[in-house]
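It is time I had a proper look at our fold encoding. Can you supply me with one protein entry, sequence and fold together? It will help me judge whether the discrete encoding reads sensibly. Leave the record below and I will have a look:
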Amino acid sequence: PFDDYYFSPFFSYVRMETLKDYWRDSLHLLASILRHSRFSDHMIEKNREVLQSLLQKYGNKIDEQLRDEATRHFFPSHPYGKNWRGKFPEIEKIAQEDIETYYRKTFQPQNIIISVVGDIDPEEMIEILESEFEDWQPEHFVELPGWVAHKGRYEIPVEGKMGGVSLFCSVPGAQSPEFPALQVATLFLSEHLNLRLREEKGFVYTISSSLLPHPDFGIWRISYVTGSENLDASLEELSTLIEQMKQAMPSAEDIRRNMTKWKAQYLRFSQSSINLAYFLSAYAFWKNDAEEGLTPWGKMEHTTPERVQEMMQKYLDLNQCILVVARPSFG
């Protein structure tokens, strides 16, 4: 098992992959991890070193700094706005009592989604899960505070000759009827960002457009890294391109082409049982519908060109977003 808590600021997940002969033992082991974990001093120190290593590795990367800064302004005074890696003084102060308190508070049955994928007997699987979890009663309920994003433009200094840009725009959550159209609009936008800023202009090294979903809200993100000599020109080009795309309606062929590429990537990735289990749990969290994780393109395929343009016009207003610019200190 391992925990990829960096995939999303909204949930952590434990993944376990095993040979078919050991699936029963694995379910019992998973239950033990979720319900009866113990945190020895040795394991705490070992993982403290891992966190410090990750902080050294990623802490100075421009794209990470951009994301952290944009997230901080999107979720001011809220746990989601905190850097998941932490800081060296914070990591040093973590004690066994802190970890055990957090574990007891958050690892509660109402917070857990379990997905099992494989050639196994479903009735026996359910029987095992019920025997392990049916007596697990909630003891703590965590209520997160509300927040109001601090929209605007922010600049952060970075060392070296590389800079970058991160744009966070607020959109409806994954359970909104607008969300499938937003997914298609994101594919369309990503294609044009790469074509214009990377291939035609040569301004950026990498660029991406993505949706970060939550059941109740979403974030439409654009981010890229560029050289100091192209930073201002790339910002101007980004603004121009977004305004042009808000006026230019995509064709049905544009939508079909992007949907085909996305569907092929999703199907290839979900061929792995462990990845499919992740998708099922994620869709259960995002949309309260695990089965949608089997064919998530179903609702997206009904999106019209008019609907895509509507999403662009409605939510890609740079004056209503958070724009973070990482400006190099040298060069």
Summary: The radius of gyration is 22 Å. Strands lie at 2-3, 14-15, 152-158, 162-172, 204-213, 217-227, 322-328.
